[in-house]
């Protein structure tokens, strides 16, 4: 848990989001009280806290509690502030408006704390490493609504106070940036040079924050760049993100690509999106059969019937009968969805009381951050090899 010292609620809100969720205390006295009773390893000191008092705290912590990282946020960072911060032993000094950098500084500080603990022979702060839930949104048919579900789900989670990161694995034609009205300044393409050595700080450097508090790792802006993103990168990236966020949502292309298979290996919950149309339901059935072949456990799948419409004569029961598995949630068809796309504002933000938003929040409410252990990787991998062989024969 990150402890944020900040007496201004608005700054606390912005900074808390930037660090991926924090316990906020209003002054240094409250911080000392909190720390006396916890083994937290990261303190962020907000720009409204007096520098001299903050420096005194950091200098004392360096001696009394060397594994504790203290990051200082200031409205203005000049040589005077930097000098004082250096003498006091702050891990980093970050300008208040550079929220992205603050997130990265926190990840780097946590990694350093772990090194300090290991070097000092101390036990880890928590006996178990924190591990958020990886939720992949998939569907074998293009246009079923995977990206709509994934983006709205990510925002709904962030709004509920869950720290969430949405990864766009539709590498060639990913829509997450457009659906959230984000500019893809950093994307998965930036991870290519550090693919084999990606660490927590590297993963954090890929993140683009959305105003809702949702963090994202966007798909490359150029479809051609997608070819250079190795599947191994996904294998490294998702668990790193899961250490930082309560839930990592993964949006996917409509095919079992190498990247999707890598994501499935790490997935705790799989959301399968279909529409009430025969081709989409047929593909759902094929997808379920393929997942069985891959050894993916059926109890970790949820079927979402998107664009449900009473006039279409195919309802959730019909879908369940056709595919042999029940529908978890129905998301109604409504023109508010394309309208929200054109505005670049997800429905859960734009129209939080709309039935589409309610349906998405129902899905979000059933996802918590305590996953079952991931599926047996050996069984999983051998099934994948079989699948690849079959694909090669075709
Ligand atoms: N519940 C809904 N009601 C009305 N329209 C919807 C709904 N869900 C999705 N759509 C429409 O379907 C289109 C496709 O949705 P989306 O992009 O989420 O599909 P996708 O499965 O991610 O597609 P792709 O496989 O191409 O990535 C959207 O542009 C939107 O207009
Ligand atoms: Mg999509």
Automatic annotation (TrEMBL):
Keyword Nucleotide-binding: yes
GO cellular component terms listed in the entry, alphabetical order: cytoplasmic side of plasma membrane; cytosol
Bias (Basic residues) ranges: 380-394
InterPro entries, A to Z: P-loop_NTPase, ParA/MinD_ATPase, YlxH/NBP35
Segments of skewed composition (Basic and acidic residues): 369-379
Keyword Cell wall biogenesis/degradation: no
A GO term for molecular function: ATP hydrolysis activity
Top-level taxon of the source organism: Bacteria
Region (Disordered) residue spans: 367-394
UniProt entry keywords in alphabetical sequence: ATP-binding, Nucleotide-binding
Biological processes annotated in GO: negative regulation of cell division
Protein name: P-loop NTPase
Species this protein is from: Pseudonocardia bannensis
């Amino acid at each position: 848990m990150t402890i944020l010292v900040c007496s201004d609620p608005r700054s606390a809100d912005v900074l808390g989001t930037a660090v991926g969720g924090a316990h906020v205390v209003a002054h240094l006295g409250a911080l000392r009280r909190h720390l006396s009773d916890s083994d937290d390893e990261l303190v962020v000191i907000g720009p409204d806290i007096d520098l001299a008092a903050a420096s005194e705290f950091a200098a004392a912590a360096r001696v009394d509690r060397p594994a504790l990282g203290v990051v200082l946020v200031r409205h203005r960072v000049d040589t005077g502030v930097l000098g004082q911060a250096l003498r006091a032993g702050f891990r980093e000094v970050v300008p208040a408006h550079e929220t992205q950098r603050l997130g990265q500084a926190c990840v780097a500080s946590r990694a350093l704390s772990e090194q300090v603990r290991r070097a000092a022979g101390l036990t880890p702060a928590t006996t178990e490493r924190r591990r958020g839930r990886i939720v992949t949104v998939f569907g074998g048919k293009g246009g079923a609504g995977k990206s709509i579900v994934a983006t709205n789900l990510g925002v709904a989670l962030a709004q509920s106070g869950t720290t969430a990161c949405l990864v766009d694995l539709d590498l060639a034609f990913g829509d997450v940036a457009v659906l959230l009205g984000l500019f893809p300044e950093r994307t998965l393409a930036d991870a290519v040079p550090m693919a084999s050595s990606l660490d927590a700080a590297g993963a954090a450097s890929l993140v683009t924050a959305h105003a809702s508090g949702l963090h994202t790792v966007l798909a490359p802006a150029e479809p051609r760049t997608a070819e250079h993103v190795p599947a191994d990168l996904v294998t490294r990236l998702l668990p790193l993100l899961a250490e930082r966020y309560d839930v990592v949502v993964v949006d996917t292309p409509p095919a079992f690509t190498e990247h999707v298979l890598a994501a499935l290996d790490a997935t705790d919950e799989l959301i399968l999106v279909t529409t009430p149309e025969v081709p989409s339901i047929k593909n759902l059935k094929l997808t379920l059969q393929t997942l069985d072949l891959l050894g993916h456990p059926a109890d970790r799948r949820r079927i979402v019937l998107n664009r449900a419409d009473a006039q279409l004569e195919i309802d959730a029961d019909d879908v369940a009968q056709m595919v042999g598995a029940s529908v978890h949630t129905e998301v109604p068809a409504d023109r508010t969805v394309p309208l929200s796309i054109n505005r670049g504002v997800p429905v859960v933000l734009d129209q939080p009381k709309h039935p589409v938003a309610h349906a998405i929040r129902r899905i979000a409410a059933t996802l918590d951050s305590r996953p079952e252990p991931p599926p047996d990787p050996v069984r999983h991998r051998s099934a994948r090899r079989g699948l690849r062989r079959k694909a090669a024969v075709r």
